[in-house]
Amino acid sequence: QSREEESLSRECKELIPTLPREKGWTVRYLYLFQGFWCNPHRIQPIYTFQKQFQAKDSDVIVATYPKSGTTWLKALTFAVVNRHNFPSSENHPLLTSNPHHLVPFFETSIYGEMIHDQIPDLSNVIERRIFGTHVPFPSLAKSIKDNSKCKIIYLCRNPFDNFVSLWMFVNKVKLESAPTLMLEEAFEMHCNGTTRYGPFWNHILGYWKESIARPEKVLFLKYEDLKDDVNFYVKRVGEFLGCPFTHEEESSGVIEDIVQLCSFEKMKELEVNKCGTFTRDVGNKHFFRKGEVGDWVNYLSPSMVEKLCKIIEEKFRGSGLSF
Ligand code: A3P
């Protein structure tokens, strides 16, 4: 039995052996839980999150498939929402805290630290509350999906760069004793959909469809579009969250200041992001690698590209979404 399996509640211990499983990237097995592939030690926190979390109408949820630009979107959203609290970028919390610290993940930071059904104390969280998650749309807490007017911002990334970023990350944060995950093996898992919170196409399509059905509820963004014109999307985020930038703010450069504060170059060089840690095993520096579009050309062979193109074409056909 792995360390992860030992720490589970009885409820999950009973459930897990009944679930289909496949070899995992960082854990021995991923389990097919509620239609997505999940690390066994995340099943309990996600269960508890679903049962307990009470969303407020003012809440903002930043949702992504891993390595799609979560850190960037968290920083941008935090900066947009809190721009009146921190008008000067000189003493801004983003200069001394990693975005994952300011915008905690439900399934790790908040419910991941709880023992089974313990209730986390969220009373001290400053409003407007912003949370992060990798949980697919159908598995979000009901209070987020249906019982509140809280807003969701989803960021996706092209599946080529997304894969390379994920593969590089996993090999950087793995225990020294663990074997290196070979590119070919990881790629097969990506294509089969057996990755954390995957298949990636279901993850993306779940939020995409919801953004079409309820555009006031879910704002769907692409990493590549942000790279292309981040000023435009910062403005868009402000509008979507009901806190649009005024003409005065625009003309005095507030949007540019936010863009600059959250830029890859700026964030990567901050002391907290060079030396701080996210968890015991993961340094903040691992969230900042290259931050580019198209780096996949340096890693994927022509046959890999062909295979992934086919999968993308097949899975996203008719959705109105392309990469
Ligand atoms: P690369 O590995 O391609 O460089 P996540 O935040 O979801 O873990 O995704 C990490 C990816 O986003 C990494 O991509 C990382 O370099 C990139 N990234 C992190 N901060 C960024 C920023 N401020 N601007 C643009 N990209 C950023």
From TrEMBL:
Keywords: Transferase
One MF annotation (Gene Ontology) recorded for this entry: sulfotransferase activity
Source domain of life: Eukaryota
InterPro entries: P-loop_NTPase (IPR027417), Sulfotransferase_dom (IPR000863)
Presence of the UniProt keyword Transferase in the record: yes
Pfam families named among the record's database cross-references: Sulfotransfer_1
Protein name, UniProt field: Sulfotransferase
Entry's EC annotation: 2.8.2.-
Transmembrane stretches, start-end: none
Record-annotated Sulfotransferase domain positions: 57-320
Family: Belongs to the sulfotransferase 1 family.
Annotated source species: Lotus japonicus
